[in-house]
UniProtKB/TrEMBL annotation:
<dbReference type="Pfam" id="PF00005">
    <property type="entry name" value="ABC_tran"/>
</dbReference>
<dbReference type="GO" id="GO:0015424">
    <property type="term" value="F:ABC-type amino acid transporter activity"/>
</dbReference>
<dbReference type="InterPro" id="IPR017871">
    <property type="entry name" value="ABC_transporter-like_CS"/>
</dbReference>
<dbReference type="InterPro" id="IPR027417">
    <property type="entry name" value="P-loop_NTPase"/>
</dbReference>
<comment type="similarity">
    <text>Belongs to the ABC transporter superfamily.</text>
</comment>
<comment type="function">
    <text>Most probably involved, with PEB1, in a binding-protein-dependent transport system for an amino acid. Probably responsible for energy coupling to the transport system.</text>
</comment>
<dbReference type="InterPro" id="IPR003593">
    <property type="entry name" value="AAA+_ATPase"/>
</dbReference>
<keyword id="KW-0067">ATP-binding</keyword>
<protein>
    <recommendedName>
        <fullName>Probable ABC transporter ATP-binding protein PEB1C</fullName>
    </recommendedName>
</protein>
<feature type="domain" description="ABC transporter">
    <location>
        <begin position="5"/>
        <end position="239"/>
    </location>
</feature>
<keyword id="KW-0547">Nucleotide-binding</keyword>
<dbReference type="InterPro" id="IPR030679">
    <property type="entry name" value="ABC_ATPase_HisP-typ"/>
</dbReference>
<dbReference type="InterPro" id="IPR050086">
    <property type="entry name" value="MetN_ABC_transporter-like"/>
</dbReference>
<dbReference type="GO" id="GO:0005524">
    <property type="term" value="F:ATP binding"/>
</dbReference>
<dbReference type="InterPro" id="IPR003439">
    <property type="entry name" value="ABC_transporter-like_ATP-bd"/>
</dbReference>
<keyword id="KW-0813">Transport</keyword>
<dbReference type="GO" id="GO:0016887">
    <property type="term" value="F:ATP hydrolysis activity"/>
</dbReference>
Length: 245
C-alpha cells in the first residue's frame, strides 16, 4: 500500500529554538499512528504542520500526492481533506451544536442547509449526543464538547483526521467516552495521526507508535514491540514514568 502522508527532512524553528529536527516518517492510507513522547518533544508542532497551522522551515510534507507547502492553493486544497481535533475543542460558544457542525460544510463546501443538517444529526448519533443538537457548548461537559468537536471534524468528510492530545483537558470520567468514539473511527478505515498520552489507546488501536524526544523521532515500531521491548533508553524511561501513574 502506498504512503498517504510522507514527511521528508522536515525542520521547524521558533526563533532560535530548533523544535523539529530532520523529521522523516510516513503514514499509509487507513493506518492509525500514535505520536507520543514527553512534553516539549515537538509532537503537537509536528501535527500542526500537517495541516499548515504551523509552517515548516525546510523539508516536504506530501498528503494524498499533494506537496502541501508548494503553494497556497495546495494548502487550501489539503485543508479540506485533513480534519483536526484540538485539545480545547474550539467550538463557537454563540452557536448551537447543530450550527457548530454545519457551519464549515455550508461555507467551505457550499453544501445545502438541509443536507448538512441531516448529516449533522447522523454524526451526533454516532458520538451519542443526538439529544444535544439544539444545546449550546456552555451546556455541555468537556467530554461532550470534545465529541461534538469530533462530529464537526467528520462533517467535512476528511480523508485524514489529526488528533492533538484530545483527552488531556478532560476529567478522567469523561475520557472513556471520547476514546470510545475514536476507537470506532479507527474501525472505519480513517487515516489517523494522534498525539496522545493515552497509552491504552495506543496499545489497543494503533498500527504504529512514533516516539519523539527533543524534536527528533527516537524510534517507531508496532505497539506490541514498542511497549514490550522499546529500543531506546529514552523510551524505556518514558514508558516507566507514564505507565506507573
Amino acid at each position: 500500500m502506498s504512503n498517504f502522508i510522507t514527511i521528508k527532512e522536515v525542520n521547524k524553528y521558533f526563533d532560535d529554538f530548533h523544535v523539529l529536527k530532520n523529521i522523516n516518517f510516513s503514514v499509509k492510507r487507513g493506518e492509525i499512528v500514535v505520536v507520543c513522547g514527553p512534553s516539549g518533544s515537538g509532537k503537537s508542532t509536528l501535527i500542526r504542520c500537517l495541516n499548515g497551522l504551523e509552517e515548516i522551515d525546510s523539508g516536504q510534507i506530501i498528503i494524498d500526492n499533494i506537496d502541501i507547502y508548494k503553494n497556497k492553493n495546495s494548502l487550501q486544497k489539503i485543508r479540506k481533506e485533513v480534519g483536526m481535533v484540538f485539545q480545547h475543542f474550539n467550538l463557537f460558544p454563540h452557536l448551537t451544536i447543530l450550527e457548530n457542525i454545519t457551519l464549515a460544510p455550508m461555507l467551505v463546501k457550499k453544501e445545502k442547509k438541509e443536507i448538512s443538517k441531516e448529516f449533522a444529526k447522523e454524526l451526533l448519533r454516532k458520538v451519542k449526543l443526538e439529544e444535544k443538537i439544539l444545546s449550546y457548548p456552555s451546556d455541555l461537559s468537556g467530554g461532550q464538547k470534545q465529541r461534538v468537536a469530533i462530529a464537526r471534524t467528520l462533517a467535512m468528510k476528511p480523508k485524514v483526521i489529526l488528533f492533538d492530545e484530545p483527552t488531556s483537558a478532560l476529567d478522567p470520567e469523561t475520557i472513556g467516552d471520547v476514546l470510545s468514539v475514536m476507537k470506532q473511527l479507527a474501525k472505519e478505515n480513517y487515516t489517523i495521526v494522534c498525539v496522545t498520552h493515552e497509552m491504552g489507546f495506543a496499545k489497543e488501536v494503533s498500527n504504529r507508535v512514533v516516539f519523539m524526544d527533543k524534536g527528533e523521532i527516537v524510534e517507531e515500531n508496532t505497539p506490541e514491540k514498542f511497549f514490550q521491548n522499546p529500543k531506546s533508553q529514552r523510551a524505556k524511561i518514558f514508558l516507566n514514568e507514564i505507565l506507573s501513574h
